[in-house]
Write a structure and sequence with these properties.
The complex is a heterodimer of chains A (about 675) and B (about 350). By secondary structure, chain A is mostly helical. Chain A has 27 helices and no strands. The radius of gyration of chain B is 23 Å and the shape is globular. At the A-B interface, α8 and α9 of A face α5, β6, α6 and α8 of B.
Amino acid sequence: MIPGRSPAVPAALAALLAGALCLTLESVAPWLARFPANWTLPATDWAGTFLEWLLLGLKPAARWFSWLLGYPMLWANAALGQTPWPLMIGTATAIGWYLGGLPMAALGLGGLGFVLLSGYWVESMNTLALVAVSVPLALAVGGVIGVAANEFPRIKSSVQAALDVMQTVPTFAYLTPLLLLFGFGPVVGMIASAIYAAPPMARNVILGLERVDPEVREAAVMSGGTRIQQLLLVEIPSAARQIMVGVNQCLMAALSMVIIAAVIGGFNDIGWEVLLTMRKAQFGLALMAGLVIVVFAIVIDRMSAALAHERRRGDPRVAYGIVALSVLVVLVFQARLPDPSTLTFLDPAAERVDRALGEFTANNGEALNQFRNGAMFYVLLPLRIGLDEAALPFTWGFQWTATMSAGLFAAAAVAGACLALSGRAVSGLLLVIGSGIIETGIANLPWPFVLVATFSLAWVASGRRLAILCVALLATVLVSGLWERALLSLYLSGAAVFACAVVGGAIGLLCAVAPSIWRVVRLVCDMLQTIPLFVFLIPVLMFFQIGEFSAFLAICAYAIVPMIRYTRHGLVMTPPELLEAAVASGATPWQIMRDVRAPYAAPTVLLGLNQTILYAFAMLVIAALIGTTGLGQSIYLALGSADVGLGVSAGAAMAILALICDRLVQAFAEGRRTALGL
Amino acid sequence: MPRDGASSGPTVRAGGLWQVFGANATVALPDEVALGGSSADIAGRLLEKGLNPAVRGVSFDVAPGELFVIMGLSGSGKSTLVRCISRLVEPTAGSVEIEGEDILAASKARMTELRRSRMGMVFQHFGLFPHMTVLDNVAFPLKVGGMARRARHEKVMPIIEMVGLDGRERAYPRELSGGQRQRVGIARSLAGDCTVWFLDEPFSALDPLIRRQLQDEFLEIRTRLNTTIVFITHDIAEALKLADRIAIMRDGEIVQIGTPTEIVLRPVDGYVSQFSRDVARGRHAKVGSIMRTEGEMGECGGPGLRADMTLETALASCMSLYDPVPVLDDDGAVIGMVHPADLASSLQVEES
């Protein structure tokens, strides 16, 4: 992959040496294996003390702001809660008609109809009220940030860096300091979702304004527009489509966050309902509440996505007609309209699901357990604590010994040497390093090895600057005492990313070859991407109970989508003339795939991998709700005990891990792109 | 500055214009200029510093009503030059006067006013506002100038008719062909009654046939308006066809300024003559450029050559003649003589 005089071989050698040294000196110098606790700085406490002091100072202002925001919240709640449901459904149908004709209108009608029948109408309206207040806030903040970054190029790069960081900070980590600032209550969820939803808006505004054709911009100048006129009359409208993509992403992020924020409780919304039923193991109801969320997400997503498409709008008169009709219905049936919270049409279905599920798990519990235990004992545990600790008589049937380790290393060394002799020195070295990692386990990796390996990887990917940055960031995690938890997080997300890369890559390949499969997979992908993170927990919990394996599955389900999409996209996007040239040279389809399409797709696939990694980290924290160890758990615990120091520093550590992975993969992708001249 | 007072001078005057891209260009350029040398020497030293001098000490005048074409290959700095004159980019050094007013000293507000009332510009890729109809696009300069909706629409309708887009005024740019789009661009640039009209490769993005059609229409529009025009092109044939005078640019400098005939018949160096090599000279050079006005004048008659005939036409009518032929003016009086041998030799393309 990397040409002859690349730094890959010395870098891999350095990592190998570091690992080998640590393993051999482990017994002599135990500080190599475990970072001594008395070397760490009480960074968490410092952060806690400082933040508490800071937040205390900000508190009066924050409380005032919270009080101020309470009003629009109240209004939105009243408006959505008091509006008779036929009018709400009618309005949604009318908006759907205007935005996308009959299919959208049907989506609006069917979607809200389902919500009504589910009996979760009131809770849904409460959630919607939160979104309705937080989204305008997020749009305004994001829009202002985006325009400001465009107007003042000097701040642009720092704004973009800040947006990058905000994207990698896990969602729960926002909540702890906000709780302290604003106190318990719906306003916290709203502000958290506004903070979380503003960056995508800002990003798209920046991108849209950047992409305005320079001649269009110049034409506005030469027409004699003042700067304000240029911006308002020409640049922003020209960027409308990209900005609408931002609005769409902003809406989805806000919805997702509002539901996540339900964990702090206190506002009777649909996210809380999911959490409650899940805790009570009422999976039928949890599934239904989850479905309500999904329906909401789909309706909001598809309708706001229609905004970004230049499509023919439906006749507004029909839309007004629909609204008028629903008003009529309200007036005529005023007294006889059922109270939506008493509707229980779907409860029997939910109960049946519950019962069926109970039967299913009772009948197949053995098989499910075996499956889960198999995956735990033979895959996840060895990855986490290494073969030397995971291979025990009662699971593997034998006890791992030092001789076996030596044998494994010897075999890996021989295979690696063979690879090196056949000219693939890097692969050989990586094989040996890999065997070492399997033997030790990711959570038990000696810290000097992790630092050296990261440094080497970053060096190969981009150069000294990135290498120093990565190691410096990792070192802060190390000395702050969060190292072991960070490794645990790294292990679980690493395992999930690896599984996603293999399975997702294979599915992507299949989709690229067979368009008929893609048509099905695409629907599933669209669906998975619209579902708020939270809902992924329901089905895995139903079948596999609380535990690391469930978390692993939930992470995979969420993070696999970009891998599939980007792999297919990269493979399909090969320029036709390249394919024609390959065919004309007499290449078979398989050869074309291996020698032309795959290398051409490599940068795109790497970007997909990058997204998968970021998604996995995002989901890791949510998955802490159903039992993971590591940073995610710390963040969640900090939320429960309002421990700002722990919440923020664990969140920062998580962001650091995500940021390092992001930079590394981006650098590799960039390298491939440059090599291909793209 | 009063418009009348300047009417006798050039409409556009550029003096010693430099546009240097790169960090600290405004500091580096005066230093290098102070060191002396030709503009090529200065540019060389700037390049060594990692700066990019796109326009290098360019000076020229454009007379009122003149159609001044700036011709150069891509990367020669011609587009940057026209952006300096219209102050879309801030020149690093030099002066630009429009109707005697130093526009580089003009305030932002004054610049906006100048653009509304004096300048119009047409862009290579049209620069149409995608979210506005043809009508709104054309009326945009009036809108930002604060004219009421009805008034501006009334004002631009004749312009839309002039460019042949009547009936399409409700269309959006995406619904138009390339040629139609550029007509919108032309109409928009004329909406503000400009006195200086900048056209940046207006026809380069079009098919050859549409290009010719629009060139002809452009000349037609030009006769109706009395604007001063700065026209950028990379196409020598277009330059020769349209221009009153041509400035040939190379590496950010103007190599030669002259009428089409001068450029074709008396190129200052090999670079300029390379352009005219592909051009059928006979179609661009006029009889007047090779006629002798001193010495013995012949009698009236002969094939009836005129000074503004192209060499090609002249040669066709003198094919069988060997003696000097008289050139006549409109009244039939002899104003000069042309020797058929001179005609033939000036058409000869040099081999090199």
